[in-house]
Amino acid sequence: MAAKTETLDEALLGAQRGLLMRAVFGQVLTIYLENPKSLKTWLAILETVRALSVDIAAKHPDSGLIVGFAPKFWSHWEKCNIPFSTTVLGSAGKFAYTFGDVLIYVKSPSHEVAAQILAPYIPRLEAVSESIDTVVVGKRPDARIMGGRYVDSITNPNDPISLTEDILIGGGRDPRHRGACFGFTQKFLFDWPGIASQAADTQDEMIGRNPAGAVLPQHALVSHIHRANIRDSNGDQRKILRQALPFGSSGNHAGREEGLMFVAFCNDQQRFEGILRNLLGDRPERPVDKLMTVVQGVSGSYWYIPSATELKVAAVSGPDDVYEDPHWQVASPNGFMFYNAQDYLHQMAEDRYKGGDPPSPRLLSLLARTFSHWRDSWVKRQIFPRLPHLAGDGGDEKPPSAPVPVRKGQANLKTLADLLSHPASAIARANGLLRIEAKELIVGVIPDFTLGRGKEVMPYLSKDETMAAWLKGQLNEWSAMGHVVPDYERLVKVGLGGLVHEIRTHLDKIPEPERGTDKSAVFYMSCLDSLKGVQGYLRNWASITETRASECTNPADADNMTDISNRLHHLISHPPKTFQDAVQLIFSFHCCLHLVGELTSLGRLDQILHPFLPGTPLDRAQDIIDCLWVKIGENAFVNRAFIYDYVTYGTTAVCGVGGNFPQGGGINQWVQQITVGGYKPTDNDVPEGGANEVTMLCLKAARRIPVNAPTLSLRVYRDMPESFLDEAARGILAGGAQPILYNDDKLCPALLDSGPTVTRAWSRNYAADGCYEPMLAGASEFAFNNVATLLALEQTLNQGSTYAAAGPEQLRGNKATFRSPPASSITSFAHLQSLFLDQLSWLVIQCYSTILSSYGNLSDICPSPLLSTLIDGCVTSGRDLTAGGARFHIIAPLCVGMSNTIDSLYAINKLVFDPATALTTLPELLDCLINDWGFGMREPYESTLSGPADSSERSLRYTELRSAALALPKWGSGHAEVDFLGNWVVENTVRLCVDTIRSPPPPIKALLEAIKDTQNNPDFDFVVCPGIGTFEGYVGDGAQCGASADGRRSNMPIASDLSPAPAPQDLPPAPAFRNIYQSLRSIAFPSIEHGLSNASPVDMNIPETFPLEDLSRFVKAYAKGEVGGNLLTLTCADLDTYTKAGEDPERYNLVRVRMGGWTEFYATMFPAHQGQHQRRQFFTPWAEGVTQGEREN
């Protein structure tokens, strides 16, 4: 009877009409029959409630009726078995079980109407009753309870999808029950002296919410919302539909209700038992749930609520009978963007979506479960355990038994085939890695490993090896970078069996006695074990789906699970035959890479899958792609208070060395990009567009499914069909900055010129690596390091020292590079520019030195055998990815703080050197910046002996200078003079980044020659791709910088990537409104569009009211190259939306923003990140400075 819904409509349409109506006022009657075993009594009750139903439908359409029966009573007279048992209700003093026979719940718009409805029928009910307990109930207009402090029932599952999943019985083997459910009632009295004795904050902690309805995540362990949360075998919370209403008043106090008539419904009676048990804990006399200490149940029962068909009463007639709580009725005016999951499910399931093409019922069912899974994180903290050592207990003390790569392959095998996927694995089950829904078309689970939170992997190094790896560069088994694009095209062509055969063929060429020492043989053995792990993973999931098929009561679900099980068995050794085969194989391998700590993207999915599309109807293919989207995005975190930090000193060594990096912005950075569109990888002079049917499937999935991963990247080009660009515009208005837009006509030539080994075909075959950096798909290794241009400017002003730490300890600051002349000796802006480039060149050389001196470090510590099987060049060369085995070796100096640097240089020129505008001297400006524009006066720059008056006077002078700096034109507004300077900065930065490798200074040349010797390849060459790389680190990177001359305060966030700088974090959010076309003139320079071949992302905010036709026009202009940039991201959200999302995260849980390299839920972000987004500039198609409101007026 507790089976999941078979079809959405049948379960809903089978329910009693009153069940789904809003409870505002009414009466709850618990009837105790005089002779329940009397047929006459039974028929009298049926006749009465049916007449009551007809009366309400005819005379009171705004009222509703729910009728329930004691399960044994209904079973006796209807000759059916209603499963029912209780061990908690009636045995615990907090809850009363008074064994009612019939429940009648009349809902109405007022007390008077409820009384009027029931009055003619009370005598008929009294005639067959021993007693009737009538409770007159009703809500305040503001729907608050407990003295008007709390909003009640706001998390009710009242959308059509959740109702059919969790509340209504789907029919099972007896269709008569379709639309029925179980009920639970409990009449609670409030202990007002106990409540009143608690402070307001204590009351909030008791409930788990504040008066505005926002959840209090850090006080969840004993709160009511935490204790009322129970999970099924899949680890998901199954909901109940609460329709409780307060009654009476305590002590004649109008604001204090006497109690609460709790009425709830669900499709599994044991769910009530589980919740009651959880509320009480192990000692019922001392309930764990603090709310239970101030309430007392005095009467109540369990009920069977028959379907409308069974009872022959009015049924739900359509979507209008499904109630949406007003709390969740907030949505964007553009019709494409949703603020919360509840409203999303209502609109999609009730055919109210503006796009006109909602996901299928299957997808909405899976999304409802995903949303529930996300919400659970508000009340439950899940911590992934540390995995055991490969050698077992004390394994790190034992001498190594095999080379490191072989042990890594063995660790991969054990992780994939045993620990994290075997049906009997306690670790896998406890951490949701075996979660499965019978309606899924794609199965498997990605672990909750992200760049910000870290990952867990199986250790395999000995204790001595661990120490040596730490000394070598803070490295360990967690150091795998991932962050590249696997060759999934090859995977789907040859299958796992083909990969194994190829590697086995290479291994067989090496004599067996030499295999223990031959590096290629060791590499091949590690690859074979890793692939054996993937095959074991598929085998385990074939077993899981087979078991799930046997548990299904719905034949269609059982057939689906059986079909997937057969598919997985086939894919263990054979290549895919169908579209669904190919998607499943890619996703399974993708899961395996993430499970072993190799966080990677999925590449050019449309090009990979398109050959498999024939034979699959497009609507079925859309369902498959949609299912993939849900699977990739199902593990998102929404509650930052429960985040657990798995990062070690060696985690994700992006340039061959470990160490700390900004984590807080990467909570949900799963490194799961999908790239679509773009040119086909041909060598023809005239490129050939590659957009196809799968491109459109992916664009529609990104628009309609509001997850944060995957992030979709669309490669646009000059002659791209407009239908794809129109769909991209609709997707952008849906929020989440998807798709992001690459321009192939700019980026492909830039990649072609990045290295002599890059052919035209390869330059056209790039894909996002997991953030946005373009990788030559399936053939690249990648290393990057940051070049902090803003620090180079600090060093220029401050004799080679940064000044954020200037003061009593570090004096003028941290000494970073050579001592350039002091500020007093810098006589002109041209002189300052020359010194800036000298300082910058040192940072570029330092960047490369770190990467090159660490090149290959991971190969004997943390190799990547599984990932190497899908990187072109590794298997043929017999080298791991970490040992230089890839075809292409991409090296990227990524500049940080470029926008702030440009603005600061411009400000210095205007404030110091330009005779028409100068206000200060360079030494005074430096002193001003060291003292944080007067907000942080410090010794020895301001002596305490001078007294507060002197400090205050200088501080005032500095704040006046800051006001002048803030008023200056800024880069990214299309201001010609600022843009000219910006081009100079970027042009010279790119030149330094390229020349340092192509015409290296002696220290870099020596490192390059050493790498060629190690590789035994005199032609070994790097693909040099300068880029912009703030990513999500705009808060962390800004924390390292002192105040900047553009008006930014010390340690405050910098601009995201190559975006215009946001307003200062210490000032109220008041973002500027720029014309989007004018703004992009700032980046319409070859230095940016061609020179920054690792892409130059500009992250732009647009208002939610940006007209669709204008946005489509803009996207088409960008595709044609009529506006600047080789990579744009457009985040659609208003400042008001951001503000409300920060105040009520649940109510705005689908608001997503671009974090620099990916998409994040705004509510999950820490306040400093939220504040930076609130202060970003907005871009419109209207004139500079004009907002939507001003335009309409």
Automatic annotation (TrEMBL):
Stored Gene3D superfamilies: 3.20.70.20
Keyword Iron: yes
Domain of life: Eukaryota
Record lineage: Eukaryota, Fungi, Dikarya, Ascomycota, Pezizomycotina
Short name of one Pfam family: PFL-like
GO cellular component: a single term: cytosol
Cofactor: heme b
Name of this chain's protein: Pyruvate formate lyase-domain-containing protein
PANTHER family: DEHYDRATASE YBIW-RELATED (PTHR43641:SF2), FORMATE ACETYLTRANSFERASE 3-RELATED (PTHR43641)
GO molecular function, one term: metal ion binding
PFL domain: residues covered: 361-1049
Entry keyword set: Iron, Lyase, Metal-binding, Oxidoreductase, Peroxidase, Pyruvate
Residues of the signal peptide: none
